[in-house]
């Protein structure tokens, strides 16, 4: 009886050891207090009015040498990450109900650099994207092809990275700012009757399709 | 979900807008719990409430996305987050209370869809279509 018990105990210990030893070296283990970085993106061409069939391109580049926003003296070599990604939110600005409605279905998607995927949650709100890692930076260039007339707003989310391959607690949040000098926020105000909040001002770009 | 909700709601109730307003670099208040902004105020909300309001369903790399931490607050508040940021959930539900949410979390409610169904059942299907859509936006 005792021997059986010891054998059982050894079996359990061995299984745990085997499972523990087979962890994926390419994974990172995210933690609560990862890095915080800045990121920027821009929509082109910077027009207020587009026609059906036009393509609007979102471009963004992130250097691999980054300063942590909370500890600015910390310079991080942020290369060989598992991924860096975020999402594009698409709003159809309804001038009658004065609300924003999910607008993904009014656009086709184009990928130039990086990748775009349909979101598994709330796919009608917009796609998710992942940057492409190159020698010295991360790059993204994706586009939306206008399919239907109306007033629209696009917002680029903050980015997240699960971390550097094989290094625990290197996950990062990137605070996104859309740098178009004119984001045509007057269209947003015209359609909805109010202005975006400070966070919206950072990331929303509006335009009309006719 | 309920733990995340209570943590921020009670912190907010107790401390309010505690700490200096402004960026961290300028000596502002730091509240970096689970994706909060490091500024004390964002989106017209203080850091605690913003922390449960900034759930982004499109985000592919949020390790905590499966926890719908902002859901109870979205049942209560009267702000449609999508109007202000097209990455945030469409939220046309308002007027539920903390008590109603708590009452629906009975011992046999073991999943988010079960919570949704019990909440509607106990509240005469109040705003049923919008409640169902809100849960869908959180992935349930």
Rounded average pLDDT of chain A: 88
**Spans of chain A of 5+ residues with little confidence (pLDDT < 50)?**
none
End-to-end CA span of chain A: 82 Å
Number of DSSP strand runs of chain B: 2
SSE string of chain A, helices as H and strands as E: HEEEEEEEEEEEEEEEHHE
Give the neighbour order of strands across the main sheet of chain B: 1-2
Chain oligomer state: heterodimer
Range of strand content of chain A: 35-45%
The percentage of residues in β strands of chain B lies in under 5%
List the helices and strands and how they pair.
The complex is a heterodimer of chains A (210) and B (140).
Chain A: H1 2-21, E1 35-44, E2 49-50, E3 55-63, E4 65-67, E5 75-77, E6 85-94, E7 99-102, E8 107-113, E9 115-118, E10 127-130, E11 132-133, E12 137-146, E13 150-156, E14 159-161, E15 172-178, H2 185-192, H3 198-203, E16 204-209
Parallel strand pairs in A: 1-15, 2-16
Antiparallel strand pairs in A: 1-3, 3-12, 4-5, 6-7, 6-10, 6-13, 8-12, 9-10, 11-12, 13-16, 14-15
Chain B: H1 2-15, E1 41-42, E2 45-46, H2 47-53, H3 71-76, H4 98-104, H5 112-122, H6 128-137
Antiparallel strand pairs in B: 1-2
Helix pairs in contact in B: 1-2, 4-5, 5-6
Question: Can you offer a commentary on this structure?
Answer:
The complex is a heterodimer of chains A (210) and B (140). Chain A is elongated. Chain A contains 3 helices and 16 strands. In chain A, strands 1, 3, 8, 11, 12, 14 and 15 form a 7-stranded mixed β-sheet that branches. With 210 residues, chain A is an alpha+beta fold. The mean pLDDT of chain A is 88. Chain B is an all-alpha fold and 140 residues long. In chain B, 39% of the residues lie in helices and 3% in strands. In chain B, strands 1-2 form a two-stranded antiparallel sheet. In chain B, strand 1 and strand 2 form a beta hairpin. In chain B, helix 4 crosses helix 5. The radius of gyration of chain B is 15 Å and the shape is globular. At the A-B interface, strand 6, strand 7, strand 10, strand 13 and helix 3 of A face loops of B.
